[in-house]
Amino acid sequence: MAERLSLIDRVPVIPVVVLDEVAQAVPVARALVAGGVPVIELTLRTPVALACIEQIAKHVPEILVGAGTVLTPGHAADAHRAGAQFLVSPGTTETLAAAMQVTGLPHLPGASSVAEVLRLLELGYTEMKFFPAEVSGGVDFLKAIGGPIPHARFCPTGGISEANAASYLALPNVGCVGGSWLTPADALRAKDWDRIITLASWSTHAPA
Hints:
This protein is an alpha/beta fold. The chain has helices at 25-34, 49-59, 73-82, 94-103, 114-122, 138-146, 165-169, 185-190, 193-203; strands at 13-17, 39-43, 64-68, 86-88, 107-108, 110-111, 127-130, 153-156, 177-179.
């Protein structure tokens, strides 16, 4: 999977975006691209998420669009059909991992403990999502496992903000972080695309 596409080395911050209106999809994707962020993760938390993925895949080909909050095999298949180019799950079972593999899409399976990290390594993964990062030990957890498990690399998500992102990105076993602060809900409601461009621009200067 890492040979085909290393998701965690593309950008310092992967925007984790929740959209309530299909009309928001193309403008937010274009704003992120304008701010220098060519990746977007749309969570499957709203009824319009799949339609939003379809719109972005069709109209903003310059951005890599993925589906987050993939919880079931059905989610993985539906996201693939909608045009998602990668998948992200908050946690992983062997059934879910198999379903994501069947799509052929790059994906980040989720883990939040040493046991879960080891299980994903056994399944052949070296890149994974660490979620929920802050409440699962945060920077200290990742520092602690970096010594005995140096070949596992992470995209921490959950509680990550502009204030603490740099602390995660400074770790050798972190390739990127996932965060919603690049596309705040109030900016989406107000259609304040310029604000999203500005926030996206910050992430392009985040320390690697």
